[in-house]
Specification:
This protein is of the alpha+beta class. Helix content is 42%, strand content 22%. The longest helix is centred in the last third of the chain and has 24 residues. This is DNA polymerase IV.
Length: 394
């Protein structure tokens, strides 16, 4: 069988855990089941941001990215818990372990989602049965709900898993793309965020169908080579394979340097961290990755090695954000001992296209303004005609 024929007959599942952090909390503490529950970055601060919330909370109008104060006004009985990343990592590993009992072709792409290629263990004929069995086992063994998309490629499988939540199983065929996806806004397409949607709107590309049928040169001028890949996916085309080794290969991105002298002053060390942050950001950009764990490495003149880490709600990939976190870790943990080597490493990395930014207080106001502006521009263009108004560049 040649590669093209194999691609055409692939059957890929995308498994997405439902309200993962909240569901893990409810599984660990059955008293939380049935309650309106939210995991918040800082539950005690009224301006803390909700990382995720249970479906019971959503029924009251609570949603992710709300501040604690807003959520409490909407739902006074809302139960708030702080995030427990170790608990979530253990639950994630247990989910992936169950998936690997079906096939080795499992590719985790974040803490709560994975692709599974079931072409050789049942294909389309048995796809619903396999997906249903996975879903039931994860619920029975781990007490965690999930949704599963079934499709001939990764992009369509991921899109399908979003169509029915919670506990949904959805098949999305390539021939259905024009009817089901093309009428939707490009902002609803995986891989397109607010910034890319604004650029596309300036090129009079507003829907997934507009992107699918746009001229290649127009798309490339708007979004570069990445735009052409997105256009292919808007047409239901995605040749990426399920690669079990991908997550291991992209496990970390880092940079370190040996200092010219054994440094004892703060400012020169921070200057080194600034340069390291730039290198790491460039490497992340080149690999199209972002990560939620940052570590700094310190080797003293006495060859004593230290590593200090921090887990974040928001994946890091920008230079200044990387530097800010590295600086804070260094200021907190350096004891003044002469330093021979410094380093920064970003781990728990995921591809940009799989990136789901979980908002913290630091970026909530910026994000909220961007969304509000985009909604205003959309309403104005709907009233006065497409392309009449667009957001200016700063």
């Amino acid at each position: 069988m040649d590669r093209k024929e194999h691609i055409n007959r692939r059957v890929i599942l995308h498994l997405d855990m439902n309200c993962f952090f909240a569901s893990v909390e409810q599984a660990h503490n059955p008293e939380l089941k049935g309650l309106a529950l939210a995991v918040a970055g800082n539950p005690k601060a009224r301006r803390g941001i909700l990382v995720t919330c249970s479906y019971e909370a959503r029924a009251f109008g609570v949603y992710t990215t709300m501040t604690v104060g807003e959520a409490k006004r909407v739902c006074p009985e809302l139960v708030l818990v702080p995030p427990d990343f170790e608990k979530y990592r253990q639950a994630s590993q247990a989910v992936f372990a169950i998936l690997r009992t079906y096939t080795d072709l499992v590719e985790p792409v974040s803490i709560d989602e994975a692709y599974i290629d079931i072409t050789e263990i049942g294909g389309l004929e048995d796809a619903i049965g396999i997906a249903l069995n996975m879903q039931e086992r994860i619920l029975r063994e781990l007490d965690l709900p999930c949704s599963i998309g079934i499709a001939p490629n990764k992009f369509l499988a991921k899109t399908a898993s979003d169509m029915k939540k919670p506990m949904g199983i959805t098949i999305l065929r390539k021939r259905e793309v024009s009817d089901l996806l093309w009428p939707l806004s490009v902002l609803e397409m995986h891989g397109i965020g607010i910034s890319s949607a604004e650029k596309l709107a300036q090129s009079d590309i507003h829907t997934i169908g507009d992107l699918a049928t746009a001229d290649d040169l127009k798309v490339k001028l708007t979004l570069g080579k990445r735009g052409l890949k997105l256009k292919q996916r808007a047409n239901g085309v995605d040749d990426r394979i399920v690669d079990p080794d991908a997550s291991a290969e992209r496990k970390s991105v880092g940079s370190s340097t040996t200092l010219a002298i054994d440094e004892t002053e703060l400012d020169p060390c921070l200057s080194v961290f600034q340069k390291l942050a730039e290198k790491v950001a460039n490497r992340l950009e080149a690999k199209q990755l972002a990560g939620t764990v940052i570590s700094i490495q310190i080797r003293t003149a006495a060859w004593r090695n230290q590593s200090r880490s921090k887990t974040l709600l928001n994946p890091l990939y920008r230079e200044q954000e990387i530097y800010k976190e590295a600086e804070q870790l260094f200021r907190l943990h350096w004891d003044g001992e002469p330093i021979r080597l410094l380093g920064i490493t970003i781990t728990n990395v995921i591809p940009f296209e799989e990136l789901h930014e979980q908002l913290s207080f630091d970026n909530f106001e910026r994000h909220d303004k961007e969304v509000s502006m985009q909604q205003l521009v959309a309403r104005m263009n709907e009233q006065f005609g497409p392309g009449t108004i667009h957001k200016g560049k700063q």
